[in-house]
């Protein structure tokens, strides 16, 4: 019983430390609050079950991101990405705001970036999300991807080149 309490306390600390960033990561990928919450809860459940069996996780953050990433990939295979209408219904964009202009400008920017990102390969989206949404260090990204920091850095650089190219093409096409 005592070990179970220690496990619960450790799990609670890890949950509190990572739940917000994992949710943000999931939401950025699936654009659905409910689905993002479900995926994050499933990732934590898998972490709990894995450690409950006595398995040792040296880096809980990397384990959780890897698990969540796999769940997101599985989810996107089963169901295509949410439509823009779904995104709008599911987010807070429609809530009244003191500054309507700023809200609409942010919404437009978000939609533009989202469209460009969705046109890129999933692995590119994932890298950009980990680095710039989740603010993960290269070392942490390398652990999630099970690669070297140098390799992760090169992959991130290539991902950013693809994003820059896609944004430039988008602006050229729409101007």
Description:
With 175 residues, this protein is mainly α. It has two domains: 1-81, Rna Polymerase Sigma Factor, Chain: A; 92-175, PhyR, sigma-like (SL) domain (Butyryl-CoA Dehydrogenase, subunit A, domain 3). 80% of the residues lie in helices and 0% in strands. The chain has helices at residues 2-30, 33-52, 60-78, 84-90, 100-118, 122-133, 138-145, 149-174.
Summarize the structure.
With 175 residues, the protein is mainly α.
Topology:
Layout: H1 2-30, H2 33-52, H3 60-78, H4 84-90, H5 100-118, H6 122-133, H7 138-145, H8 149-174
Helix pairs in contact: 1-2, 1-3, 1-6, 2-3, 3-7, 6-8, 7-8
Order of helix and strand elements from N to C terminus: HHHHHHHH
CATH T-level topology of the largest domain = Butyryl-CoA Dehydrogenase, subunit A, domain 3
CA distance, first residue to last residue: 66 Å
Query: What is the number of strand segments?
Result: 0
Summary keywords:
2 domains; Butyryl-CoA Dehydrogenase, subunit A, domain 3; globular; Rna Polymerase Sigma Factor, Chain: A; mainly alpha; 8 helices; 175 residues; single chain
């Amino acid at each position: 019983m005592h070990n179970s309490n220690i496990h619960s306390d450790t799990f609670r600390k890890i949950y509190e430390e990572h739940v917000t960033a994992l949710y943000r990561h999931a939401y950025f990928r699936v654009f659905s609050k409910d689905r993002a919450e479900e995926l994050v809860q499933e990732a934590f459940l898998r972490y709990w079950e894995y450690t409950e069996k006595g398995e040792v996780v040296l880096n809980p953050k990397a384990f959780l991101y890897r698990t969540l990433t796999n769940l997101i990939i599985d989810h996107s295979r089963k169901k295509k990405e949410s439509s823009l209408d779904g995104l709008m219904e599911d987010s807070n964009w429609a809530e009244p705001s003191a500054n309507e202009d700023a809200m609409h400008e942010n919404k437009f920017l978000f939609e533009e970036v989202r469209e460009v990102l969705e046109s890129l390969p999933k692995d590119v989206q994932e890298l950009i999300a980990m680095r710039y949404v989740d603010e993960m260090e290269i070392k942490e990204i390398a652990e999630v991807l099970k690669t070297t920091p140098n390799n992760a850095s090169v992959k991130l650089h290539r991902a950013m080149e693809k994003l820059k190219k896609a944004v430039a093409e988008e602006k050229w096409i729409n101007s």
